[in-house]
Amino acid sequence: MLKIILDIPPSVNHCYVNVPRKGRRLTEAAKNWKLIAGYEATQAKRKQRWVYPAKDEKIVILLWAFWPDNRPHDMGNLHKLLPDALENVLYENDRNVLIRDMDFSLDKKRPRIEVVVAYKKELDDNETQH
Predict the structure, then answer these.
(1) Considering only CA atoms, which of 55, 67, 63, 124 is closest in space to residue 99?
(2) Can you name the CATH fold of 2-129?
(3) Neighbours of 83 (CB within 10 A)
(4) Segment holding 87, helix H or strand E
(5) Residues of the chain above pLDDT 90, percent
(6) Annotated domain spans of the chain
(7) DSSP character for 109?
């Protein structure tokens, strides 16, 4: 398993902009967040000795969100940019990624997402042992 702590990404509504005759493009905020998240994931994989999975191996992302305020937030907003940012860093393609929202709470002083990336097989093995 690999653990990473990241800033909260821009919401899906703030990730994309429609460009005439070019379609949807990432906003600068989304590009910057992906770049930083990819860098943090690269550092974590080196320190924690993450082994790049086989091409078709399923990966699970476990998410804990610590929101900055009491406004309603949607965990689903974390499901687009995060797996895209980790693609080609921790795994080949995000089509093999399953996302599990674990919990959310408030942390006004240090809003963040805490991410655990694991091989699905590893989690399945742990569940059968209990």
Answers:
(1) 63
(2) 60s Ribosomal Protein L30; Chain: A; (3.30.1330)
(3) 21
(4) none
(5) 74
(6) 2-129
(7) S
